[in-house]
Amino acid sequence: MAIFRIEGPVTLNGRVRISGAKNSILPIIAASLLAEGESVFEEVPHLKDVEIMCELVESLGAKVKFSPKESRLTVDPANVENILAPYELVNKLRASFLVMGPLLAKKGQAKISLPGGCAIGSRPVDLHLKGFVAMGASIIYNHGYIEARVNRRLKGSKIYLDFPSVGATENIMMAATLAKGQTIIENAAIEPEVVDLSTYLVSMGADIRGAGTDTIKINGTDKLKGSTHTIIPDRIEAGTFMVAAAITGGDVIIENVVPSHLKPVSAKLREANIEIAEELTSIHIKAGKKIKSLDIKTHPYPGFPTDMQAQMTSLMAKATGTSMIVETIFENRFMHVNELKRMGARIKIDGRSAIIEGAMKLMGTQVKATDLRAGAALIIAALAAEGTSEIIDVEHVDRGYVSIDQKLRQLGAKIERFD
Ligand code: UD1
How many other CB atoms are there within 10 angstroms of residue 183's CB atom? Predict the structure, then answer.
């Protein structure tokens, strides 16, 4: 068990550099299986989830070399023969399901453990499977595994997603690159990570148009080559530092960001009375004393990201007035609320809404990180709380933040890690 001990309150000041996006590199590692040769990735974040994804493609037969110091990863899929993604790995990392599209397209079959129940809701994979079936695959459920097969080659098809799922869009887009004919994904997710995946696939020789809009057209090709690709900055890590700066009344420059990817977060922070100046690749946050309450509803991009909901809940606990946060993407994503209440926040949950009474004095105590973003929310609250907070189970935070304690210390936080 790892613990963060944080002394608050502090004011964050200085500069921090954001790492590559977790939600880009995970599907991109899966996509590298489609190539005939080696791919090289730059700006790869050294995260637990990246290690698990590497372990998975290695278990399939790929040769993987990760140099965390250089943030460089190479994947050579030339010897991939295995098509099984076992429970031990899929259970640890839901994104492992993203190897299904590439395996089905390249090897004609895949056997993947059904992702287990997840801390933030049931998270089904029906939309991924509906897409593969439309492309000619047959699907069998067998002893907790999903077995997908196709006779010879996947066929291009028109696929309408009932919901613009990020994972389903990515999985289907990857499968379609080696299918016969054209695939059209309608009501596709338009998240920046979908666009990053498409950019990499196109650099491998794929024919993809429209990524970043709700209609993506993919003309299948016979072969894809390995390629070199630089991962986009992590907008959720950046957003988390923006909120940390805001809650502490700080003055922080966040470097290596794409400001347009952060529009929904910046807009809400401005509404809360935080000053934000955008440069080409950085954002400057200056927070005053008074934070205003907000109403927030999570939505697919470019709406407010569900992955920033927990962090905003912490900020709203310090705002003047009552805030309401509605979570529309995942059920059961308010696990941070009970922990925040232990720190003095006043929050009521009503179904998918959280009503937060602001201007409360937060007090340090022992709390538990129940998932990745819940952990980030507790760190943010602890920075603004009086006294010592101890956050336990911060391994969850390691899944999505590169050296968050080091980066926060650099900004003046009093945070220590104990393993
Ligand atoms: C991705 C992100 C995650 C983020 C989420 C929403 C990665 C690795 N993870 O997750 O951090 O919180 O997008 O922005 O990129 N759904 C179905 N059937 C499906 C697929 C999804 O009903 O087949 C539902 C889910 O249960 C959920 C909603 O659609 O309620 C959104 O899920 P989705 O966009 O697929 O999220 P992920 O790709 O899992």
Answer: 26
Which residue has its alpha carbon closest to ligand 1 atom 4? 307
Question: For ligand 1, is residue 117 a contact (CB within 6 Å)?
Answer: no
In the block, tokens 């935070």 appear at 397
Strand order in the sheet with 109-113: 84-85, 109-113, 145-149, 138-142
Tell me what the pLDDT averaged over the chain comes to.
96
Ligand 1 atom closest to Cα of residue 26: 8
Determine the Cα–Cα distance for residues 239 and 389; give it in Å rounded to an integer: 22
Distance 213 CA to ligand 1 centre (A): 17
39's tokens: 């791919």
- CA-based nearest residue to 309, from 241, 366, 376: 376
Model confidence pTM above 0.85: yes
Q: Find the 84 Cα to ligand 1 centroid distance in Å.
A: 22
Q: Rounded to an integer, what is the distance from CA 330 to the centroid of its chain?
A: 13
**For 281, phi and psi rounded to 5 degrees?**
-130, 20
Tell me how far apart the alpha carbons of residues 51 and 236 are, in angstroms, rounded to a whole number: 19
Range 48-57 average pLDDT:
96
Tell me the best of 50, 197, 329, 335 to mutate to test the pocket of ligand 1, counting ligand atoms within 8 Å of each CB and taking the most.
329
- Residue to mutate, 166, 261, 331, 333, ligand 1, most ligand atoms under 8 Å from C-beta: 166
Instruction: Measure 306 CA to ligand 1 centroid, in angstroms.
Output: 10
Any ligand 1 atom below 6 A from CB of 329 = yes
Q: Is the CB of 263 under 6 A from ligand 1?
A: no
pLDDT, one tens digit per residue, over 169-193 is 999 999 999 999 999 999 999 999 9
- 204 Cα distance to chain centroid: 23
Give the Cα separation of 94 and 149 in Å (integer): 21
Residues carrying an active site annotation: 118
Return the residue matching tokens 């068990």: 1
272-281: b or e for each residue (b if 16 or more CB lie within 10 Å)?
bbbebeeeee
Does the Cβ of 240 fall within 6 Å of ligand 1?
A: no
Return the ligand 1 atom nearest residue 189 CA.
34
Condensed to tens digits (0 to 9), the pLDDT of residues 284-314 reads 999 987 999 999 999 999 999 999 999 999 9
Strand ranges, E, within 150-288: 158-160, 182-186, 207-209, 215-219, 228-230, 251-255, 274-278, 282-287
